[in-house]
């Protein structure tokens, strides 16, 4: 299951990255459901937990503004709109799992998965940056400064 979830997170990352890039370019032809289906279909023989993929895509997308508001104070010298798109999306994914999926995904797993994505798809220092920001987020959650939430949508 964990290898399948890792592949699922890669699909989520690809999908959210494409969406973010195309929206930033002003692409009016973007159809999120088509992008999701295309990316899932690429791995149809190995990716079994497509519900997890879809839930994570929709959750991160729906909560992006909230997640950015939580993440920005944790790295004040790095405005989120100025960091690499890949790092920003990985941070959102990790933060979403830490805040909204705490009862289903252990916090250490969420952070480790985000760090692994950053190692594979980010820049030279991405994994350290992601680890530091998400580690600080976890400490704030554990200290009660940020409350784990349930999705309201």
Give me a quick take on this structure.
67% of the residues lie in helices and 0% in strands. With 153 residues, the protein is mainly α.
Report what the structure shows:
This protein has 153 residues and is mostly helical. Helix content is 67%, strand content 0%. It is built from 7 helices and no strands. The longest helix is centred in the N-terminal third of the chain and has 23 residues, at 2-24. It is globular and about 40 Å long. The mean pLDDT is 91.
Could you outline the blueprint of secondary structure elements for this entry?
Elements (H helix, E strand, L loop, with lengths): L1 H23 L7 H10 L8 H13 L1 H8 L13 H16 L6 H15 L4 H17 L11
Helix pairs in contact: 1-2, 1-3, 1-5, 4-5, 5-6, 5-7, 6-7
Q: List how many beta strands DSSP finds.
A: 0
Q: What is the 3D shape?
A: globular
Distance between the termini: 27 Å
Q: What is the H/E order?
A: HHHHHHH
The count of helical stretches stands at 7
Category by helix and strand content? mainly alpha
Largest sheet: none
In which range does the helix fraction lie? 55-70%
Poorly predicted residue ranges: none
Q: β content, as a range?
A: under 5%
Mean pLDDT, nearest integer?
91
- What is the CA-atom radius of gyration, in angstroms? 15 Å
Keywords:
153 residues; single chain
């Amino acid at each position: 299951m964990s290898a399948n979830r890792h592949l699922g997170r890669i699909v989520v990352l690809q999908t959210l990255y494409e969406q973010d890039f195309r929206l930033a370019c002003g692409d009016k032809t973007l159809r999120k459901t088509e992008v999701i289906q295309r990316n899932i279909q690429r791995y149809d023989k190995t990716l079994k937990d497509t519900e997890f993929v879809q839930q994570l895509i929709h959750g991160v997308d729906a909560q992006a503004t909230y997640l950015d508001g939580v993440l920005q104070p944790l790295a004040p010298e790095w405005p989120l709109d100025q960091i690499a798109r890949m790092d920003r999306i990985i941070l959102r994914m990790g933060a979403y799992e830490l805040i909204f999926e705490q009862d289903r995904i252990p916090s250490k797993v969420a952070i480790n998965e985000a760090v692994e994505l950053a190692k594979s798809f980010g820049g030279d220092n991405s994994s350290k940056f992601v680890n530091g920001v998400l580690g600080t987020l976890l400490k704030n959650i554990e200290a009660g400064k940020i409350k784990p939430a349930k999705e309201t949508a």
